[in-house]
Design a protein that fits this description.
This protein is an alpha+beta fold and 79 residues long. It is built from two helices and three strands, in the order βββαα.
Length: 79
């Protein structure tokens, strides 16, 4: 089952970054590739949160890293 689509007001946020209302204050939450979530500090501006998420995604959500980590020398097609 596919995840729910983002709302129109949140479509511009990069992968892993979410906006949550916590104790009547809008906060940004980032979900790491391993599933761990952190709240960014209160008072973080939207452009700062987006910039931090983009930098982190370029480093840790790179698809070539996944290919290198999942490489198995014995996983070859049968001839």
């Amino acid at each position: 089952m596919a995840p729910r689509r983002r709302k129109a007001e949140n479509k511009h946020l990069p992968t892993g970054l979410f906006r949550r209302k916590l104790r009547t204050v809008n906060r940004f939450k980032y979900r790491f590739p391993n599933g761990k979530e952190i709240l960014l500090p209160a008072g973080t501006y939207e452009f700062e949160a987006i910039e931090a998420a983009i930098i982190f995604n370029q480093k840790h959500r790179n698809p070539t890293i996944k290919l290198l980590m999942s490489y198995d020398e014995y996983n070859k097609p049968i001839k």
